[in-house]
Each structure stands twice: as C-alpha cells, then as structure tokens.
Write a structure and sequence with these properties.
This protein is mostly helical. It has helices spanning about 15-35, 35-45, 60-80, 85-105, 115-130, 135-155, 160-165, 170-175, 180-205, 210-220, 225-250, 260-275, 280-300, 305-325. It has one domain.
C-alpha cells in the first residue's frame, strides 16, 4: 500500500459511489428545502448503509444490508440516548466497538468492518448533545435515512437481468459465528485500542474519544497483517492532515443550504471511487466530509479549532491502531 502508487483496480465502483452520493445528498437537499436542514444531515448519515457488501450482487445485498442498517440504527440510537452523559458515551464507545467488531469478524461481514458503527454512535452522541435533537427524533430520522439508502441500493433490481441473478442464502453470505486465529486477533486489537482510546480521551476531552477510537479501528481494518497495520496508520495520518487542509479551503467558502448537499454528495461519490485503491487519498476526502457533516449538524461548520482537534485525535488513534499491529506474528518470507 504505497503512498505514491494506486492499488490495482477491483472493477468499476461508480454505481456504489452514485448510490452513496444519492443516499447522502438527497435527504439533506430535501430537508433543507423543507426548512429542517439538521434533520437532513442526520438522515444523510444513513448513506453509510450502502458502503457494505459492495462487491456482492444486488440480490444478495438486499439480504445483507437490512442487517447493516439495523446495526447502524441501534448504534445511532444508543449514541443519541447517551449523548447527555459523557461517562455513558465513553462506556458506550467500548461496548459498541466490541459488539460491532465481534459481529463483523465473526460473521465475515467484510469491509469496511466495524468502523462506521462506532463512528455513527459517536456522531449521534455529539449531535444530540449540541443540536438539541430529542433522542427518539434522532433515531427515527436516521432510520428513515437508512431505509432511503437501502431503497437506493436496491434500485438496480428494476432491471430484469439483475433481479434474475441467483442469490445465496443469508447463512452463506454471513457465515458464522466463527472465529479463527486472524479474526480473534483483530477482535483483540479492537478491544485494546477501544479501551486505550477512551482512556486517552478522558484526559483530553471525553467528547472526542469516539474519533480516537474510530481512527484506530479504521487502521485495523479487516486484514490481520502487521505490515498493513503500519501502512494504514501512515495513510490515515497523512490523509487526515491533508483532509483538514481541504476542509479549511471549503470553510472559506462558507457553504450552506443546497451547496452543502452537493459538496457532500460529490465527496461521498469520490470516496467510493478511490478508497480501495489509495487509502490516504480516500481519507483526504473522508475527513472534510465528516467535518462538514458534523459541523453543519451541530452549527460548528467552519470551526478550525475542531478541525485541528481532529488531526490530533487521528494521529493518536492511528498510532494506537498501527502499534496494535505488533500483536500479529511477523510474516515469514
């Protein structure tokens, strides 16, 4: 995973990127026009549903994605109800990370793994704590967003040849629960970085713990490999620092209204095109995307203090994730 070269293409991803962009941008645009932009930003988070099982046929995604959506809704709801209490948020981060990792690795969910369940939990806690959204309202809105993204992901089924594709049963798509040496090691690493990340967050700012833990889990990924851990850590750090620079440039434009929907949609589309080929480049887009989304939802858009905090949190989290890679045995040449 070189910083200066792209990985080989794994096939076209524009359809997945377009679905993710629609799932993100349309709820934001619609709710902005209706005068409730904050609800649009919450519903737009449901676009994370589309990011799973991207390589599977649509008829099989139709069986897997409801489970993913349910996990995201539960994670968001827990974060929304815990948002007013930083101790509950801290404990919740560890629990959500462990449960999401156990289910992701135990049932072979595949990329992007447990990261978005942790991220959605933290984002939900932050938004409800700062934007005055009732937890039940938040849960209902993100559920609507997940449902919309699910419908978008299934839209290719309107084509006869797509829906005529044979689909494997769910027990084959998500085999398990079963843990081999690799999945047990990945789960152990998630447990370690979750506890350490939350502990570090308590000294810095408990409200930022989810970003530290999320950065660490993103570095761990779904590959049980020592070298990959260090490489992804380097990509994560560099991509985030460059991403904050992109966010700073966008903040100078003071985007609002439908412009935010358009920018986030373009970013979401771009991420899906490059994430499997160059992780640092993807992070350079993901970072301003999340900063814009959370900033718009909490009324802190354009805050460079928040952006700089995210750089520090990412460096700490990425270092934790990379360091946990030493638990893997060295690859024999």
């Amino acid at each position: 995973m070189s910083l200066f070269a792209f990985a080989p293409s794994r096939g076209p991803r524009w359809q997945l990127g377009l679905q993710a962009a629609i799932g993100m941008a349309v709820p934001i645009a619609v709710m902005t026009l209706l005068g409730h932009p904050t609800l649009g930003y919450i519903a737009g988070s449901g676009a994370f549903t589309v990011l799973f099982a991207g390589a599977a046929p649509v008829v099989e995604r139709a069986r897997v994605l409801p489970i993913v959506a349910a996990g995201l809704i539960v994670s968001a709801s827990l974060g929304a109800f815990a948002g007013a209490n930083l101790w509950l948020v801290s404990i919740g981060i560890v629990i959500v990370a462990l449960v999401a990792a156990a289910l992701s690795f135990g049932f072979r969910l595949g990329p992007p793994g447990p990261i978005f369940f942790v991220l959605v939990f933290g984002l939900s806690a932050q938004v409800t704590a700062h934007a005055g959204i009732l937890p039940l309202t938040y849960s209902a809105v993100i559920a609507a967003g997940c449902l919309f993204s699910y419908v978008v992901a299934l839209s290719p089924l309107l084509i006869r040849r797509v829906r005529s594709h044979p689909a494997r049963p769910l027990r084959e798509l998500l085999p398990g629960p079963a843990f081999d040496d690799a999945s047990r090691m990945l789960l152990l690493r998630v447990a370690i970085v979750s506890v350490l990340g939350v502990a570090l967050g308590l000294f810095v700012d408990p409200g930022r713990s989810y970003w530290i833990v999320g950065a660490a889990i993103a570095v761990i990924g779904v590959a049980a490999d020592r070298r990959a851990a260090f490489e992804r850590g380097l990509h994560r750090m560099l991509g985030t620092i460059l991403g904050v620079g992109v966010y700073a440039l966008l903040a100078l434009l003071h985007p609002s209204g439908l412009w935010i929907a358009l920018i986030l949609g373009i970013m979401q589309f771009s991420v899906e095109l490059v994430v499997v080929r160059h992780y640092a480049l993807a992070l350079m887009i993901i970072t301003p995307l999340v900063l814009l989304l959370t900033g718009a939802a909490t009324g802190q858009i354009g805050s460079m203090d928040v952006a700089l905090e995210r750089v520090i949190d990412t460096i700490v989290g990425a270092a934790l994730g990379a360091a946990s890679g030493v638990l893997h045995p060295r690859t024999r040449v």
